[in-house]
Design goal:
Number of helices: 11
Structural class: mainly alpha
Strand order of the largest sheet: 1-2
Radius of gyration: 20 Å
Helix content: over 70%
Distance between the termini: 36 Å
Order of helices and strands: HHHHHHEEHHHHH
Length: 244
């Protein structure tokens, strides 16, 4: 078992160091150039659409631009934004924050292209809703049905058994450590609350995230501001890319 674990770690290290990082940064740079810096060029339009649709009443299965933004934010912000940043700073020093800003800027173009392709190649479901996502533009744009099927299977397993499990385990562990509540009680509570949201379809998810994400972002920013003020003397080191 230890030997298998070592092989998996070696493969994981190689893929993340020499394949995924290169592919993500490379594609991000290409998309940034091909879209003529869309993350800057359309920033005003983005703010206009988000702010203009905040609080907008929707009917049926329609969701507003602000709700779509909240759903996207909720799916992207997670443990990695907290634990991952802390690990990066511990490993590479506070200057790692600078490079995270750079990668985030490049990644904006990747996210834009990803979302645009999903809109272009989505298919109507017949009840006012749509099917869409990477698997659909792999199949319909790239004509790679086999890859699309494998992607759909792997992403379902990954999100269902890995990502969600990590998030739930983090919540359970934090609550048990902080308040002494048995992990089984927290697990059932998390499962029940999640079911109330996701079984209502994308409309209920959108309405729930519309309330949750602004509060989450506000608390996150407030915590960050407090930490910055308490450690203000360390701020110059954050923007030094060569900080050891």
């Amino acid at each position: 078992m230890e030997a298998l674990h070592g092989v998996i770690n070696d493969i994981n290290s190689f893929v993340w160091t020499y394949v995924i990082i290169v592919a993500l940064i490379g594609s991000g740079v290409i998309y940034t150039l091909r879209t003529k810096f869309v993350q800057v060029r359309l920033l005003g339009e983005m703010l206009k659409l988000i702010v203009g649709s905040a609080g907008q009443k929707t009917e049926g299965k329609e969701i507003s631009g602000f709700q779509a933004f909240c759903v996207s934010t909720a799916s992207r912000v997670g443990v990695g934004n907290i634990a991952g940043v802390a690990i990066a700073i511990v490993t590479g020093g506070p200057g790692a924050v600078f490079w995270m800003w750079v990668i985030a800027f490049i990644g904006c173009a990747t996210g834009f292209v990803e979302s645009t392709l999903a809109q272009i190649y989505k298919l109507p479901r017949g009840d006012g809703a749509f099917f869409g996502g990477p698997a659909y533009y792999m199949k319909n744009a790239l004509n790679m049905s086999g890859l699309a099927k494998w992607f759909a299977i792997l992403i379902s397993v990954t999100f269902g058994l890995i990502y969600v499990s990590v998030q739930a385990n983090t919540i359970v562990g934090a609550v048990e450590t902080a308040f002494g509540i048995d992990h089984a009680i927290t697990a059932f509570a998390v499962a029940g609350l999640t079911a109330l949201v996701i079984f209502g379809g994308v409309t209920r998810i959108a309405k729930f995230t519309e309330m949750l994400v602004p509060s989450m972002a506000g608390l996150y920013l407030l915590s960050a501001i407090i930490i910055i003020v308490m450690n203000f003397d360390q701020v110059p080191a954050i923007v030094r890319a060569d900080t050891p």
